[in-house]
Write a structure and sequence with these properties.
Length: 322
Amino acid sequence: MLPVFDLHCDLLAYLTAIDGADPMGDEIGCSLPSLEEGNVKFQTLAIFTMTGEGSVESGAEQVMAFSELLEDYDAYVQVLDDPNDLENIAESDFTTVVTAIENASGFCGEEDDLDEAFKTFETMLETIAPLLYISLTHNEENRFGGGNLSNNVGLKADGRVLLDYLSERRIAIDLSHTSDELARDIIDYTYAQGLNIPIIASHSNFRTIRDHIRNLPDDIAQEVIARGGLIGMNFCHEFIDEFDSDVLVQHILHGFELGGANAMAFGSDFFFSPDDAEFFYDHRNSAQFPNILTQLDSVLSQEQLHALSYGNALHFMNRLWR
């Protein structure tokens, strides 16, 4: 069974926002038993916050939840203390977990002093480093730029300051929740300023296959590919197809057709959904990864299958952190 490296799930938000949340239960697709059954050897845990009052407090709660998860469930998960261990985690008996920040509002409120926010961020890093990526926004506009639902809102002045601050810090910028304008502005600004910031789309599919604002248009996807980034396939059915779970295969094939042989990965995006309506049955939890890979075995070469499952993500993190 191939190891799986997954770039995005919302386990931490579930643990802090839902009464009685249990990482061992079946309420969320990325439960610890599901990760184990699916042979997920690397899982990114997003610190997800909405923009608005209490966003920084929510971020802090999820940092604490990350620490508690590592302490209380050490039979299932381990932290990446040393990036030199990356080569060994595919054979580990545990799921290695790292964090990402899904919306910079998790450490910087709309009215907060930016310098103080950076101090908050540094304090967070003392607990959660290494951090894989940061999204400037979620779906809505914030002080840094436009989210997916913010048409014609690009990179703002505070967004430029944040990008300057992140250069050379070995943390990627995630485009999965940007407006198209913000994504293009990030690409242009980092290039024009010579900033050393990898660019990824951690949990996004392709708009050519499913015309949804959360999916990547081809030009932005090709920029991520050209810059050596990653594109993580999202399992939320809204971003795959209205009715047919097999369309996920079309998204994956489209990524390879765009030249993404070294960029394709998984970003399942499992989050709490009380009625299970957000995910096709075939993609309902992390335990389905072996079945998904078996389905893909007939349309991808072995080299492509290994790259998608874990190889591209492993190579990216080796370049990012070592």
